[in-house]
Design goal:
The complex is a heterodimer of chains A (about 400) and B (about 300).
Chain A (H helix, E strand, L loop, with lengths): L1 H17 L2 H21 L8 E7 L4 H12 L7 E6 L2 H9 L5 E5 L3 H6 L7 E4 L4 H30 L7 H7 L21 H31 L1 H7 L6 H29 L6 H25 L3 H18 L11 H6 L4 H15 L7 H24 L4
Parallel strand pairs in A: 1-2, 1-3
Antiparallel strand pairs in A: 3-4
Chain B lengths: L2 E12 L2 E12 L3 E5 L6 H8 L7 E6 L2 E2 L4 H6 L1 E4 L11 H11 L4 H14 L15 H10 L8 E5 L7 H16 L3 E5 L3 H7 L2 E6 L2 E7 H5 L5 E10 L1 H9 L4 E7 L3 E7 L1 H11 L4 E9 L3 H9 L6
Parallel strand pairs in B: 3-8, 3-9, 6-7, 7-8
Antiparallel strand pairs in B: 1-2, 1-4, 4-5, 9-10, 11-13, 11-14, 12-13
The chains are: A mainly alpha (about 400), B alpha/beta (about 300).
Chain lengths: ~400, ~300
């Protein structure tokens, strides 16, 4: 069966090169458009207005110092507002309601644990709807983590050197690892800039992924018109081979397309998209969702022209709503919520978190799961549609 | 003799329409079987079920002992399917098309190359093998369309209207080739709008109408259903529609249909005796300019059984 799959895929790949799709739609068009947008609009950080929740269950010197430093930091003046909460649950509820963008939680006994050299853990609550606030909160906590690590190390070293436990705090602070004092870096987004060239590059890549994979899926309908699909189906091969054989080619070409746009953005603009493995995983999930959704469209279309129109329409609507054409933070609140019904919205959210926060696979686990979920649902409905229609 | 292809109780319903109803027949090894029916009779639906493109609602298909539903890959490997349309890739050459479809049948590379040459030779297109399909004439496309179904040397070849839209020379070449295949022992299921092709190629014929096989047998057996009936063709000048109605009302006329712009074709009992009555019946409506009494043939039997001309 794999041989038949390979035979169908090879013909499809050849067809995509012969009709120019593989070069024009998958490579040239998205790279050129993303580059034009990048040159015209790239370079500026998106405007930031964030309210971050602050939960101090510790009541010690560390949280107080962090609050003092954040509020006095000139770099965050007018951009960041702290809002106090009594419990983590309250903060989470408010975050879920969309009234704050993120929250920092200091657990009970945090300052005491750090002072005793036991280290400590600060929790950051984030929401995919407000990735930039999450980036700022994570950046602050990263800075705290560095201080906690330094302080813990210093206390342990002092104890090992024979300094009495009741004298350690004074000894450590006198010798430089003093404070819980926090100095914020000038750039609150420690993981890298969320440059508009990343927005537009990823937007074009997300949009064209639909076109590229859509071309292969659409060709199923062209083959039905030609009669070659039935001829294939009359051969001793599994019924799913023509669909999967073409889908695989569309999927791989779309993956090459998004990676080429990513590479061109990095090479031309020096953009930072984040951890390569996480970015690749996110794009793979996006292309998978795009393939399943275009399959669903093709399974409902009666002609290849109708499929063309539907795929084009769905691609542009998803691109607009999902932040591929207009950055999501520029969209009204309602549309920002609607964006999460589209694969583009999840991909854009994930890429913003990666580009801004510098996280890894865990950071985009949510968006990847959402994209895979969409792929599963759309693919399942498409399979049923194909059984009744194209393969009925 | 064992049946190469057999089907029993095949039915397919689309909503309220019963497209195929309890169709069953068999084709022995080396036998050519014709399936005749007017447009919309259910031929294509039946063929689609025979080659595994459509799931029947009821019934079964056996190909060389393999049940098509239970063991579709083994059954399909024995079938060569020539669809009605030119099911080829126009941007590929004839050879590339054959290579693609041959690979789907799992033929090894070297064996496939040999078979492609054989098939190209058989369909008389060796010299045009490396030209793109969209540069071929209609007849050449038809021939390569058949060739693509022969690569794996099927036990049974199913041809759905294989000569539609081809010139007489290509039609002759196709029919010669098909007869050669049958002579070599291949079983054949043949549908065509051209009665003379079916009469020439097929030993037995099934007539399908309104989704049912209403008659089956050799040409002689089917023609015998006409009894003492003759086929009469009148060439007239006048109002042919009114003349047809008048002729249909004449006692002894079992069928009367328009044939072209100036003829009416009739099935009549003892045609030569009835001629004066027929001419009198249309007097004042049309002038009879020529008369032909034709010995009963398959077309007359078809007309008698279905009430339709085959090309209606």
């Amino acid at each position: 069966m794999l041989r038949a799959l390979f035979v169908v895929s090879r013909l499809e790949l050849r067809a995509r090169f012969m009709d120019g799709t593989a070069v024009l739609t998958a490579l040239l068009a998205p790279i050129v458009l993303a580059s034009l947008f990048g040159f015209a609009l790239g370079g500026d950080d998106p405007p930031l207005r964030a309210t971050v929740g602050f939960v101090d269950l510790d009541g010690g010197e560390f949280p107080s110092s962090v609050r003092r430093e954040v509020l006095s930091a000139k770099e965050l003046d007018g951009m960041l507002t702290l809002r106090d909460f009594a419990t983590e649950k309250d903060a989470q509820q408010t975050l879920d309601d969309g009234d704050i963008g993120a929250a920092i939680v200091f657990p009970s006994g945090f300052s005491q644990d750090v002072g005793a050299g036991r280290g400590g853990k600060v929790t950051v609550l984030t929401s995919p709807e407000t990735p930039l606030a999450g980036v700022v909160a994570s950046s602050i906590v990263d800075r705290i983590s560095a201080l906690v690590d330094a302080r813990t190390l210093a206390v342990k070293a002092s104890l090992d050197a024979g300094v009495p436990a009741d004298k350690v705090k004074e000894f450590v602070e006198r010798n430089g690892a003093s404070g819980p004092a926090l100095t914020l870096e000038s750039d609150p987004m420690a993981g890298g800039k969320v440059d508009l060239s990343v927005y537009y590059g990823s937007g074009m890549a997300a949009l064209f992924a639909f076109f590229v994979v859509g071309t292969s899926v659409r060709s199923l309908l062209t083959e039905r018109n030609l009669g070659t699909l039935n001829r294939m189906r009359a051969a001793p091969i599994r019924p799913w081979i023509p669909i999967v054989g073409k889908g695989v080619v569309g999927f791989l070409l779309a993956l090459v397309s998004v990676c080429a746009v990513w590479a061109s953005s990095v090479l031309l603009f020096g953009s930072t998209w984040g951890d390569p493995l996480a970015v690749f995983a996110l794009w793979t999930a996006h292309v998978l969702a795009a393939a399943a959704i275009t399959m669903l469209v093709a399974s409902r279309a009666k002609t290849d022209s109708q499929a063309d129109g539907l795929i084009m329409g769905v691609s542009f609507v998803f691109a607009f709503l999902g932040g591929s054409l207009v950055p999501m933070y520029n969209l009204p609140d309602l549309l920002q919520k609607v964006a999460l019904l589209t694969p583009n919205g999840w991909t854009s959210t994930g890429l913003t978190e990666l580009a801004g926060g510098g996280g890894g696979l865990a950071t985009v686990a949510g968006p990847i799961a959402a994209l895979c979920g969409m792929a599963l649902v759309a693919g399942g409905i498409a399979a049923l549609g194909f059984r009744k229609g194209l393969l009925g | 003799m064992t049946a190469t292809l057999s089907c029993t109780g095949l039915s397919k319903r689309y909503g309220d329409i019963l497209a195929v109803q309890d169709v069953g027949f068999f084709i022995e090894k080396g036998e050519a079987y014709g399936l005749l029916g007017p447009n919309g009779a259910g031929k294509t639906t039946a063929i689609s079920m025979l080659v595994g493109l459509l799931q029947p609602d009821t019934g079964s298909v056996q190909v060389c002992g393999h049940d098509l539903a239970a063991d579709p890959l083994a059954a399909k490997a024995k079938i060569g399917y020539v669809p009605q349309e030119i099911a080829l890739y126009p941007d590929l050459t004839g050879r590339e098309n054959l290579r693609f479809f041959g690979r789907l049948y799992g033929l090894p590379r070297r064996e496939l190359a040999k078979r492609i040459d054989e098939v190209l030779d058989f369909v008389g297109l060796s010299d045009r093998a490396d030209g793109k399909i969209d540069t071929y004439s209609g007849g050449m496309k038809r021939r390569i369309n058949i060739g693509a179904a022969l690569l794996h040397r099927p036990e049974v070849l199913i041809l759905d209207e294989p000569t539609v839209g081809v010139d007489p020379q290509s039609r002759k070449a196709i029919l010669d080739g098909v007869e050669q295949l049958v002579a070599d022992g291949m079983s054949l299921l043949y549908t065509s709008h051209y009665m003379e092709e079916v009469e020439r190629v097929c030993k037995r014929v099934g007539i399908i109408d309104h989704g049912k096989v209403i008659a089956e047998g050799t040409r002689k057996e089917l023609v015998s259903t006409l009894g003492s009936a003759d086929r009469v063709e009148l060439v007239l000048d006048g109002d042919l529609d009114v003349a047809t109605d008048k002729l249909r009302a004449v006692e002894g006329v079992t069928e009367a249909v328009r044939a072209g712009t100036s003829s009416i074709r009739l099935i009549v009992n003892e045609g030569s005796h009835l001629l004066p009555t027929l001419i009198a019946a249309v007097r004042g409506i049309a002038v009879v300019t020529a008369v032909e009494v034709i010995e009963p043939d398959l077309e007359a039997a078809f007309l008698h059984l279905t009430g339709n001309k085959l090309r209606d």
